[in-house]
Specification:
By secondary structure, this protein is α/β, with parallel strands linked by helices. The protein contains 23 helices and 28 strands. The N terminus is likely disordered. The protein binds one RNA strand through strand 8, strand 12, strand 13, helix 11 and strand 28.
Length: 763
RNA sequence: GGGCGGUUAGCUCAGUUGGUAGAGCAGCUCGUUUACACCGAGAAGGUCGGGGGUUCAAGUCCCUCACCGCCCACCA
């Protein structure tokens, strides 16, 4: 950009701050503004009270930041989340509300461990077993520490006015202890148990994963139809031939006329070298129209079959191990499942038992993190029983009375149905209720090393201790944060599902299990704000946990935002190369522009778009504001303006009336969580009204000879500017604060020094 | 299979209780006389996915069809 000839510079000898002689340069001031806010310590509501910014008995607005994973750097999705929350937080803080926003980061157990393991494998060619548990955890800690500092710096760069004095990490000491405490209490209430059930086993990651971590992939497969033996009366169909050596029954529909006469008969066959005892049973879960209408029941390797086995008291031989290899004797022994499948097909052909082979497409379950094909296996795991009634000693939840007996499932349903938690977007309530209704036992143990280790201890010798109960295998077990004696006890090697600890997040961040002042003051939190993609994972589990431990809902309102997509509405993905980095964009156009372009046109619950053109547009807007200031300052130079905070409370001209209705409109949009509409209204007022019309109309007035009219207009311009700065501050904190900091005292009047804590204009 | 969204200007989307179709970006024409060219002025552009219904009046309410997308379940 060329420097203007100094002779043509009209402000050469004026008192206009020099910064306004150039276009707005966000890069120079953003970090300075953030430092100013942070050192003021006003992000902390206690400091606001001490300094009279907030009254101690003011209304509460509390919100816990959904902790970003320490694995990554900040992407547009997290930037959107931070922007929305910061806008709401700044808005409430300026209203004099006692406002708390708690920052945190998430260890993201499986994702983080997988990431570090992969890097070590790549650079050193070593697996986690080569390193050992202790060494791997050390490496992960180093990785986390490195990443964390980058993450936190980026969160600051967004402008997030988080109370850093209350920062929490899911794996820090306080949170770790709270999670242990939670496990023990839930166990003692009888809601956590250890049991053998079918789990989703990921042979690649060598761990259990939850239903929610499964991704279905469409694949072509062969559907084989065959009989177990020449004299076996029913043909069955399957895509997983190799599991058939684990069959104990053939199930048919009770109403199926073809097979009715066979129900109850039993057969002994030798299938692929494996002796089987097959019982023919009738079960309503069988589809008459699929395949032959008869289902070979493999209790140990299918969720559905396991449940059928429950109903018919069948045995459940396991034939596949954790490495997806066959455990039977004979020709299949030790083979991988895919090879075994071929082998069985071969055998069927030889024996003339194969009736047909059909190409079908089916959904294969794969692990989200590793891509491994899920092998359903029976395993001894820890579970949360969501259907077991317990007594809720003290309930603050609408629809549940203290002392009432409820199940976790009912608790989740009632919290939403009675309106104790409200959804900003109604359709998510339907989704949530549907999910809560179909909730099954929740498997909370994971066979990885990084995470909250299960507080259960085992030893093989007996001891007379009342706290000891007997598990299977005649091993003694003790549930507690520490072992009953310093030696002789081994801790369960598994760690907890990351969502177990995340479910406690709204109250562990406030100091639970201690009964802290924070917990009393800020819980239930006012609002949870997150992407809709983690509704079942996280939102639902927080309601469960908070209900159980505190008899409260974790938050009163649920605001879910959508995905951030690219300018054409495509998902942001590495393969498309369409990623737009918020930090890069901020360097180019300023963070305010990034923030506003993220929330403009973003309706709660729907996906939104971001593009570089859009960001550029709002950069221009920031500059417009800058130049409006320049004009106003020039116009009132030497004039006698006198600003007091209360000025706006008595609108005495169309100008003030218009400002009042703008404030009212913005407030209405905020109360409906439509910050997109609020920012839109402000954008248009500032540009189309204030800049294009009011300022233009002012020019003849300011140059005219009617001194009274000139004076009135000068006052109006000042008040208008201050009002606009305040209204825009939540959206564009950097440029508005930059301007505020450079306003001459006579214009700022008796307002506070930091715009961040200035009083919201009153109508 | 079950559920839920969406379809409005070239592109991306608003449109609150039914009352004369809106914005941003792109594009077109013109303009650089001092807040801002990171600007201003102006014009153009839509039978609101198709069909039917309710109503004095429908982008908005109801029915139906088509297409796109998402979530859940999952057939062995």
């Amino acid at each position: 950009m060329e420097e203007k000839d100094s002779n043509s510079q009209p402000f050469q000898n004026s008192s206009i701050p020099e910064a306004f002689l150039k276009p707005y340069a966000p890069q120079e001031s953003e970090h300075v503004m953030y430092a100013l806010w942070e050192t003021s310590r006003y992000f902390n509501p206690d400091v606001c009270i001490e300094n009279g910014v907030t009254k101690a008995d003011a209304d509460i607005f509390s919100i816990v930041l959904p902790p970003p994973n320490v694995t990554g750097t900040l992407h547009m999705g997290s930037a959107l989340m931070l922007a929305i929350e910061d806008i709401l937080v700044r808005y409430h803080r300026m209203h004099g509300t006692r406002t708390l926003w708690i920052p945190g980061t998430d260890s993201a157990a499986i994702a983080t461990q997988a990431r570090v393991e992969k890097e070590i494998q790549k650079s050193e060619g070593k697996s986690r077993h080569d390193l050992g548990r202790e060494e791997l955890l050390k490496r992960i800690d180093t990785f986390v520490e490195d990443n964390k500092s980058v993450m936190l710096a980026q969160m600051r760069s967004i402008g997030a006015s988080l109370d850093w004095s209350r920062y929490a990490y899911t794996m820090d000491e306080k949170r770790y202890h709270a999670v242990m405490e939670a496990f023990v209490r839930m166990y003692n209430a009888g809601l956590i148990y250890r049991g053998n059930r079918i789990v989703n086993w990921d042979p690649k990651g060598q761990t259990t994963i939850s239903d929610d971590e499964i991704v279905y992939e469409e694949r072509k497969a062969k559907l084989y139809t065959f009989t177990y033996a020449i004299d076996f009366p029913i043909a069955i169909s399957t895509t997983r031939l190799e599991t058939k050596v684990g069959d104990t029954a053939v199930a048919v529909h009770p109403d199926d006329e073809r097979y009715k006469h066979l129900v109850g008969t039993e057969y002994d066959v030798v299938f692929c070298d494996v002796p089987l005892h097959i019982k023919i049973i009738a079960d309503a879960s069988v589809e008459k129209d699929f395949g032959t209408g008869a289902l070979g029941v493999t209790p140990a390797h299918s969720q559905l079959d396991w449940e059928i086995a429950d109903r018919h008291n069948l045995s459940r031989p396991a034939v596949i191990n954790e490495y997806a290899k066959m455990t039977v004797d004979g020709r299949l022994g030790g083979l991988k499942v895919t090879d075994a499948r071929e082998k069985v097909a071969e055998w069927l052909r030889e024996e003339n038992l194969l009736i047909s082979v059909e190409e079908i497409t089916q959904n294969v379950s794969t692990a989200e993190r590793t891509g491994g094909i899920i092998e359903p296996l029976p395993k001894l795991q820890w579970w949360i029983d969501v259907e077991k009634p317990f007594v809720m000693k003290e309930s603050h939840i609408k629809g549940i009375t203290s002392g009432q007996e409820v199940t976790l499932k009912e608790l989740m349903r009632i919290s939403a149905e009675q309106g104790d938690v409200k959804f900003v977007t109604e359709r998510f309530e339907k989704q949530y209720l549907h999910w809560a209704k179909n909730l099954r036992p929740w498997c909370i143990s994971r066979q990885i090393w990084f995470g909250h280790r299960i507080p259960v201890w085992y030893r093989t010798h007996t001891l007379n201790d009342e706290t000891i109960i007997h598990a299977d295998n005649a091993v003694e077990m003790h549930v507690g944060i520490t072992p009953p004696e310093p030696t002789g006890w081994t801790q369960d090697p598994d760690v907890l599902d990351t969502w177990f600890s995340s479910g406690l997040w709204t109250f562990t961040t406030l100091g639970w299990p201690e009964e802290t002042a924070d917990l009393k003051t800020y819980h239930p939190t006012t609002l949870i704000e997150s992407g809709y993609d983690i509704l079942p994972f996280w939102i639902a589990r927080m309601i469960l946990m908070s209900g159980f431990f505190l008899g409260q809902v974790p938050f009163k309102t649920i605001y879910l935002h959508g995905l951030v997509r690219d300018g054409q509405g495509r998902k942001i993905s590495k393969s498309l190369g369409n990623n737009i980095d918020p930090v890069d964009m901020a360097e180019k156009y300023g963070m305010d522009a990034v923030r506003v372009s993220l929330i403009a046109g973003m309706v709660p619950g729907t996906d939104s778009k971001i593009s570089e053109e859009k960001i550029r547009g709002y950069k221009h807007f920031a500059n417009k504001l800058w130049n409006i200031t320049r004009f106003v300052l020039t116009s009132v130079e030497g004039a006698d303006v006198n600003h007091t905070i209360s000025l706006l409370s008595t609108p005495h001209s169309p100008f003030y009336a218009e400002l009042s209705s703008l404030i009212a409109l913005v407030d209405t949009h905020f109360s409906n969580y439509r910050i997109d509409l609020a920012s839109d209204a402000l954008y248009h007022y500032v540009w189309d009204r204030f800049a294009s019309e009011i300022i233009e109309e002012s020019k003849p007035l300011l140059n005219g000879h009617d001194e009274e009219a000139k004076k009135v207009r000068q006052q109006e311009l000042c008040d208008g500017l201050l009002c606009i700065l305040k209204l825009l501050h939540p959206f564009m904190p950097f440029v508005t604060e930059s301007i505020w900091q450079q306003l001459p005292l006579k214009i700022r009047g008796d307002e506070r020094e930091l715009l961040m804590v200035a009083e919201w204009p009153k109508i």
